[in-house]
Design brief:
The chain is an alpha+beta fold. Helices cover about 35% and strands about 25% of the residues. About 45% of the residues are buried.
């Protein structure tokens, strides 16, 4: 395992210990509403602080981009951190959430960790070295027909400016696939796509920390990621499509009629 990836795994496991302890007494947590339907708890902040401390102990010159504390430092190396992707699930005791840590070097994703503390599932990837689940190599699914595919998504929950376009996409997708799932953690959705549990995924307006690690996992597992037109702006826009190579192209075809000018230019 690459030394930087090993450090990220250590950071994720330390944060998971904090999260698992807190999950035993959810009623005792202090929770704030950052904006409509966007919650943060003392667990998010504590897990993030633990991750950052572990990473900077090993690499003090590296920069940080984290959900709760924002951007810190200037470096060719930047850690991209979501300490608890799926906070709403966590606060309801719904066991679908994860820790997501990615490392970019000069803007290119190089290392990825997504850790599911409820299942003790560790997803890792290093650029050019493949993707793994608990040290077992994983690959995207081999399904070739959208009608047989299981697709992940995320409903709009903060910004509803694209809700009409999204609902049209959703309407067509449920008619043209074998099912659509909305578990509530984009990081885990992408990890599951890499592991072949989902055949494709799409969502509007995600943040960089939601998807950075998951995108590298999908790519290293043989899948494709892009924006709604199949291009490379997905990390910056947060408008993302992922899938195995056959399903990816078919998802883009379903979405295409519903792309507003605002979505295209996002």
């Amino acid at each position: 395992m690459h030394p930087m990836l090993n450090t990220a795994v250590k950071a994720a496991r330390r944060a998971a210990s904090l999260i698992n302890r807190a999950s035993q007494d959810l009623d005792a947590l202090t929770v704030e509403n950052k904006q409509h339907n966007d919650f943060v708890s003392e667990v998010d902040r504590g897990a993030e602080a633990t991750i950052i401390e572990t990473l900077l102990d090993a690499y003090p010159e590296h920069a940080i981009l984290a959900e709760e504390s924002g951007r810190k430092g200037q470096s060719d190396y930047q850690w991209i951190i979501d300490p608890l992707d799926g906070t709403t699930n966590f606060l309801h005791g719904f066991p679908q959430y994860a820790i997501s840590i990615a490392l970019a070097h000069q803007g290119q994703l190089e290392q990825a960790v997504i850790y599911d503390p409820t299942r003790n599932e560790l997803f890792t990837a290093s650029r050019g070295k493949g993707a793994y689940l608990n040290d077992r190599r994983i690959r995207v699914s081999r399904r070739t027909r959208l009608s047989e595919a299981l697709i992940g998504t995320g409903f709009p929950f903060r910004d509803f400016s694209h809700v009409d376009a999204y609902m049209a996409m959703f309407r067509d997708m449920i008619q043209k696939t074998s099912g659509v799932r909305r578990p509530g953690s984009a990081a885990l959705d992408l990890a599951w796509l890499a592991a072949g549990r989902l055949d494709g995924f799409w969502e509007i307006g995600l943040s960089k920390w939601d998807i950075a690690a998951g995108c590298l996992l999908v790519q290293e597992a043989g899948g494709l990621v892009g924006d709604f037109e199949g291009n490379d702006s997905y990390i910056d826009t947060g408008n993302i499509v992922g899938g195995n190579p056959k399903i990816f192209a078919q998802i883009l075809q379903v979405l295409a009629p519903h792309l507003t000018e605002k979505l295209k230019s996002a």
